[in-house]
Amino acid sequence: MSDVVITVRPNGPYLVQGKVRVVDADGREFPTDPSRPIALCRCAHSKQRPFCDGSHKTCGFQADDRAPAGGG
Ligand code: FES
């Protein structure tokens, strides 16, 4: 069982819960608050990428990906 859970939010970000580091292509770490979940943008409209800034609510992003029944 993983210590990290990534929740695919309906019409929203990937919500990452657990101990993780977010790094750029050069391996430099983005500052995060380890006591809070991390929301990663998947609509591509955030001005704070790779993090969600709530822009998905106003850009018309729609995605409601669901795991197959009986998975995990
Ligand atoms: S998913 Fe929230 S700003 Fe992109």
Report on this model:
By secondary structure, this protein is mainly beta. It has a single domain (1-72), classed as CDGSH iron-sulfur domain, mitoNEET-type (Ribosomal Protein L9, domain 1, 3-Layer(aba) Sandwich), CATH 3.40.5. Helix content is 0%, strand content 15%. It contains no helices and three strands. It has strands at residues 5-8, 14-17, 38-40. The protein has a three-stranded antiparallel beta sheet, with no helix packed on it. Strand 1 and strand 2 form a beta hairpin. The model has no long low-confidence stretch (mean pLDDT 95). FE2/S2 (inorganic) cluster binds next to loops.
Number of strands: 3
Question: What class do helices, strands and sheet pairing give?
Answer: mainly beta
As residue ranges, the low-confidence spans are: none
Helix tally equals 0
Determine the mean pLDDT: 95
Kindly report how far apart the N and C termini lie: 10 Å
Rounded to an integer, what's the Rg over CA atoms?
Answer: 13 Å
